[in-house]
Write a structure and sequence with these properties.
This protein has a single domain, classed as Rossmann fold (3-Layer(aba) Sandwich). The protein has 6 helices and 7 strands.
């Protein structure tokens, strides 16, 4: 009996590992072609450059976020789009994640009214939903580290957005921790996309033809 239970447990573990590997493969191979390079940028009609948030500290973006913001600022200066959306944890505090991100872009010379804040981007899944449900966008370019982009593109396209990705210029090689974390995040978001749990948003019906300053507060 004990041997049979052990065998069943082993088979279950093998099944779960196989499913997990299959999910990761499904999110990687089909969506990598949508990651653009310097040479393929200008063939795409882009409504907005979207910067996905991460941690900030003492009113400053940490290196991972700074890499994304610097890359987005460079794309803006090249004329890829005249709108930037920073998506992350929001709030009315001057040091909230998204406000810090907007402040940093303004320090790079980008006008405040060109930068929109998505206060509903507590996760990549919610960021992609918000782009469609709140901002009513049809096509975007997402800026993040390369290992993160296939998942973001998958979620964007699954929610009706013609999403492309552009990799942030990384100063350091992707760590093992980041790779493992992303591996499990792909599985989580794949399941979320199937189940589609009901979401509510702080903001609603934002037109990116307006001034981005209307989004400074949720």
């Amino acid at each position: 009996m004990v041997k049979r239970l052990r065998l069943l447990f082993l088979l279950l573990v093998m099944l779960l590992v196989g499913l997990s590997l299959s999910v990761n493969n499904h999110l990687l191979k089909p969506y990598r072609p949508y990651i653009l390079s310097e040479h393929t940028l200008y063939n795409q009609p882009i409504e907005a450059i979207v910067v996905l948030g991460s941690l900030v500290e003492d009113g400053q973006p940490l290196p991972v976020v700074k890499e994304r913001l610097d890359t987005a600022a460079n794309l803006y200066e090249k004329g890829l789009s005249r709108r930037i959306i920073v998506s992350g944890h929001g709030g009315i505090e001057p040091t909230s994640e998204v406000q810090v991100m907007k402040n940093y872009l303004m320090e790079q010379g980008i006008p405040s009214y060109r930068i929109f804040i998505d206060h509903d981007g507590q996760s990549t899944y919610r960021s992609m939903l918000s782009l469609k449900e709140v901002f009513n966008l049809e096509n975007v370019i997402i800026v993040s580290q390369k290992y993160h982009l296939p998942r973001a593109i998958f979620l964007g396209r699954q929610n009706g957005i013609e999403a492309y990705g552009y990799p942030a210029v990384q100063q350091k090689k992707t760590s093992a921790y980041q790779q493992v974390r992303e591996y499990f995040a792909r599985n989580k978001d794949y399941v979320q996309n199937i189940l589609k749990p009901k979401q509510s948003f702080i903001q609603e019906n934002i037109n990116i033809e307006w001034s981005g300053d209307i989004t400074n507060r949720p």
